[in-house]
Amino acid sequence: MIKLGVNIDHIATLRQARYAGMIDSPNCEPDIAAAASACERAGASGITVHLRADRRHIQDRDVFRLRNSIMTKLNLEMGNTPEIVETALRVLPDEVCLVPENRQEITTEGGLNVTRHFKALKQTVQRLHTAGIRVSMFIEADAMQIQASGETGADTVELHTGAFANLSADLQQDEVDRLEAAARFAQERGLLVNAGHGINYLNVRLLTRIPQWNEFNIGHSIVSRAISIGLENAVRLMLERLKN
What we know:
By secondary structure, this protein is of the alpha/beta class. The chain has one domain (3-242): Aldolase class I (TIM Barrel, Alpha-Beta Barrel), CATH 3.20.20.70. The chain is 45% helix and 16% strand. It has helices spanning 9-19, 32-41, 60-69, 82-91, 118-130, 143-152, 162-165, 172-188, 204-207, 220-229, 231-242, and strands at 3-7, 46-50, 74-78, 95-98, 134-139, 156-160, 192-196, 215-218. α6 (143-152) links the parallel β5 (134-139) and β6. The protein is globular.
């Protein structure tokens, strides 16, 4: 079965709406570590957080706390900037997913251009590997980007599923075919293949038909459903959807 990594950035978004600058307060809620534990109890294979340069949701303190509390896998999404790379080398997550960042974006809007930034990305991959951290590239379903990702030494590619998620149901099959071709191309080159962005309870079943997937990273849909049914139940429900 496809593994599920739960992105809990929006747990921090809710906290920051009320307690930005006060996360040490005893009144501060929701608690990011408690949310991660709930996801793990429900069967998540890992926890994903994005430490952005603008710190709009996840804070440095959160990442260090999660490193000490998570029992499964900590996947740290991050831009390839010197400051964040140094933080990752102190935290030592199990995996880093390198992503593009734009301060004006609401969420990550597209895949990393590995071919354009190849030299810098390869150097970062080498540094992270030396520290024992696995590396993933968040990219579009494009053969050139997949090839370049493999040549940096990355272990995994995470294919951006935003284009698929933004299409109406009657138009999604062509995009699924494109994702499957890209996933096959990546797997043939020895890369693990993950997927993320815009995956929800309605569209996930169509994606599960692609046999090459290793893991889906899903956040907003799960956190949204948790408002109605609770976080553990929301994770369990998504895991049910992942079963072929």
